[in-house]
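User: For a benchmark we're assembling, each entry needs the component sequences followed by a predicted structure for the full assembly. Here are entry 17's components. Please fill in the structure.
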Amino acid sequence: MSFQQVSLSLAAGFLENCRLFFETLLFSIPLGLLISFCTMSKFKPLSFVFKIIVWCIRGTPLMLQLFVVFYVPGLVFGIPMRNRMLAALIAFVINYACYFSEIFRGGIESISKGQYEAGQVLGLTKRQIFTKIILLQVTKRIVPPMSNEIITLVKDTSLARVIAVGEILLAAERFAGKGVIWPLFFTGVYFLAFCGLLTLLFGYIEKKLSYFN
Amino acid sequence: MSVLEVKNIKKSFGKTEVLKGISFSLEKGEVLSIIGSSGSGKTTLLRCLNFLEFADGGTISVDGETIFDASSVKKLSDSQIRDNRLRFGLVFQSFNLFPQYNVLKNITLAPSLLKRGTSEQIEQEALALIERVGLLEKKENYPCQLSGGQQQRVAIARALALKPDILCFDEPTSALDPELTGEVLKVIRDLKSGDSTMIVVTHEMEFARSVSDKVIFMADGVIEEMGTPEQIFGNPKSPKTKSFLNQIV
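Assistant: Structure for entry 17:
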């Protein structure tokens, strides 16, 4: 088995990891923002319900959540989940949205009341205050915790293996099953390269936002 | 006719009664200073005027029009509240400039969002205001590059950009180093000669004495004494006013 064959096969697997990664980000960031607004809502029942949801999701393993999303529709409702990738995506989006929501909440609550009041006395609407004044300040503050979480997500995508999504570790295990062990270790190179790029990207964003306090 | 007529404003936070019925009026172009020890309700009064708090009782009229009546406050829509707020400007103790925008953008942000003219007009007016507070060479700077006094001058220009009927100052120099208070007070003094109607909550007694047309001394949520600066500082009647002024000087 040539090096080229193995790396191409692993790359095909890693493409699945990347897909899961980008799609998770695409949906979990807006959903996380929505959840953070719900947990901060002045309407107590709403914030209570969402705090319970966030507790359940953060308090159980992602691997367990993958099993639940994949098996429960078939076992309980008789509608088996046929699309493994979709099941993985749903579990990842919900899981990461909950983590992100707590980061967003922390970021939003760290902005001083005076910024809102300055917007209010200038006659701005709540929406204008949030989008034009608060959002960029929150963004700046949450870049470090978000980059942490997003880099964790890159590696977490390999958990999708437990419901047999054809990602990179599953591909490497096939080789291992045939007695070729090294591809399993070689997968680390893909993750390292990807996380390296992300680290550079986040460093760039942090620098871009360093012009204000 | 008075530009501002405040009648019997009351405000409680929980069981604490902070304002126990405040009434006063202000003529156009007048400067009113509000003095008093901390906890006397001065800041709460300003916040009620700017609708950052809603008074539990009383009315506020601007130019003869009742814009706030505590007995019907629930009926005010968000947009009415915003319109009411625009009658007043507020300069905060802690400046509250928007850190991500430079001086010019801090001033033009609200007028552009409120569509108060073309972007050229808004920018021209903003530049004129920046010049008026003496910061034209800093117009591209960000708040973190300015001293406290400079930031407060930008905050004043920002409030003026919306042309409020009445400009309020909440202890505008309390967060400043002593050597920086002068430049801010000078700007406020200049505004007086420009005929702005202003309410200044302040601990700067010399300033209050020299710039005000009217002085209110507040204690425990009531107006203890009200009059011209000569009366209040020269010949205070109330024992509370006397002892406050003695402590300060």
